[in-house]
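I hope you will forgive my troubling you with a question about protein structure. I set the record out below, with my sincere thanks for your time.
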Amino acid sequence: MNNKTLNKRTLSPLQTKIKPVMDVRSENNPAREAVRALCGSPFSIQISFREDTDTLARFSHVPGLIGILCEITKDGKLLALGRSVSVFSKLNKFVDRTISCAVNGAFLSATNNAVKILESVRVNGEEETEGLGGSLQYQEFQPASEKQKSYLLQLVNANVEDDDEREQLKSKIENISKEEASEMIGGFLNKTINY
């Protein structure tokens, strides 16, 4: 390792830079509009619990097993299921606690599944919000162009003296995005990149 790299902060040039936090306090901010649109359509869900006889049948070899099934429905249509079990044993002999653990576990499982499905119901159902998101949507990964990669390789070869660092950067260049490549090129050209 040479003296030039000893005192430098070690940051990956591929590490995304922290962008300033968006100030959402303004009433006309797009984020606030999106929140109002998503939260403006209230709906009701129903949660019910019952003994999970299917699970009990499959685990008939386990003595003292308690199985609970939680169903979450929205407008009479099934939204999510959650299952959980608990076992009576020498270490777990309190009836209320054993059953409560199974009920809570089934509820957590069902709500975890429901939040994944609820977004699909919201987007595809009657609660669809048109024009929502606009500039707030996540952009898909766009790989760097061959021209960007080639130019970056030239910059790395010309600017990075340490062999290990140079090889590490070269290996990462193959899988970076267009945006990361642009930032990295700019960093090399402005001599602000930390490698």
About this structure: The beta strands are 45-51, 65-74, 77-87. The chain has seven helices and three strands. Confidence is low (pLDDT under 50) at residues 126-138. The radius of gyration is 27 Å.
